[in-house]
Amino acid sequence: MTTASAPGKIILFGEHAVVYGRPALAIPVTQVHADVEIRDSDSTGILIHAPGIRLHADLNSLPSDHPVAAVVHNFLFLSRVSPSPLTPLPKSEGKFPNLNITISSTIPVASGLGSGAAVTVALVRALSAHLNHPMKDEEVNAFAYDIEKLHHGTPSGIDNTVVTYAKPVCFIKTQPIEVFNVHKPFTIVIGDTGISAPTKESVADVRKLWEADQEKWESVFDEVGEIAKQAKERIETGDWKLLGGLMDQNHALLQEMTVSSPELDALVEAARKAGAAGAKLSGGGRGGSMIALAQPEKADDISSALISAGAKNTIVTQVS
Ligand code: MEV
């Protein structure tokens, strides 16, 4: 039996603008994770079980672009087990592995917490260990990015990167990965609206705005990039008090991009009223999650305020 696991993530600063080459900061969230277990099977074929999404199916019966099937097909092609990606495996030939793959995840789907990237990374790591095809982190990351592209259109690559390396990352598209240091730990409260919102749609809508007025949106993205840069400096020098104001500014720009929602705004407002130093939506928006910067002793109050304002779930996490 082989197991592998990958954490969730949140974006602290810079979502959406990161798609257009500006810097963004993201951290792993280890309180939630995707877990994969692979066992050799007595029956022929590759059986996939994901009880959380009521999936129990033979690999060949799934559409080739199914998020889980695509990972397995691409991996078998990469490791030269299968002659081409997205091709059903002929069951009769003994050279194909017979496997039982079980996937479970505590990361809510389409919640801004990176559930898709985490399942991909955990699954490819489990396959690589079980089928004896070692992969370096950068290979896992590149593999997961290809899968993200399949499902999210034009992703920046930040989600797969932070989930693969499980470290705080300052991410700029096409540039080498930069891990940032946290001088003084700080506390973040995450509130989940419980509304599932596909990143693909909000990213596509921001692209439409950009296509209609590139000059305006390039300058908004510059502002967001500057906020992310300043936030990184503050985190690295331990001067995190001004970070709250930067979060508020970033949220206002995300509202301008039309990716907030009444539910997200209500949670952001409730967190501020309960004493958060700042708050913003996190990830693709329109639903999913928001984050609030909290003094540790206020985290529980902020959590309760978020639940009263409609959050389906909260997580308190330390950035360190
Ligand atoms: C999604 O977690 C972050 C976005 O910026 C999309 C991306 O970077 O691919 C909204």
Describe it.
This protein has 320 residues and is of the alpha+beta class. Helices cover 39% and strands 23% of the residues. The chain has 9 helices and 11 strands. The longest helix is centred in the C-terminal third of the chain and has 24 residues, at 214-237. The mean pLDDT is 94. The structure holds (R)-mevalonate (MEV). (R)-mevalonate (MEV) binds at residues 11, 15-16, 18-19, 155-156, 158-159, 199, 203, 283-284.
> Oligomeric state of the chains?
single chain
Radius of gyration: 20 Å
Largest sheet: 7 strands, mixed
Number of domains: 2
| Order of secondary-structure elements | EEEEHEHHHEEEHHHHEEHE
Give the distinct bound molecules: (R)-mevalonate
Annotated CATH architecture of the largest domain: 2-Layer Sandwich
Give the fraction of residues assigned to helices: 25-40%
Q: What value does the average pLDDT take?
A: 94
CATH class of the largest domain: Alpha Beta
Distance between the termini: 33 Å
Walk me through the topology:
Elements: E1 2-13, E2 24-40, E3 46-50, E4 55-58, H1 67-78, E5 99-105, H2 115-130, H3 137-152, H4 158-165, E6 169-171, E7 178-179, E8 186-192, H5 199-212, H6 214-237, H7 243-256, H8 262-273, E9 278-282, E10 289-294, H9 299-308, E11 313-319
Parallel strand pairs: 3-5
Antiparallel strand pairs: 1-2, 2-5, 2-6, 3-4, 6-7, 8-10, 8-11, 9-10
Short description:
The protein is α+β, with helices and mostly antiparallel strands. It has helices spanning 67-78, 115-130, 137-152, 158-165, 199-212, 214-237, 243-256, 262-273, 299-308, and strands at residues 2-13, 24-40, 46-50, 55-58, 99-105, 169-171, 178-179, 186-192, 278-282, 289-294, 313-319.
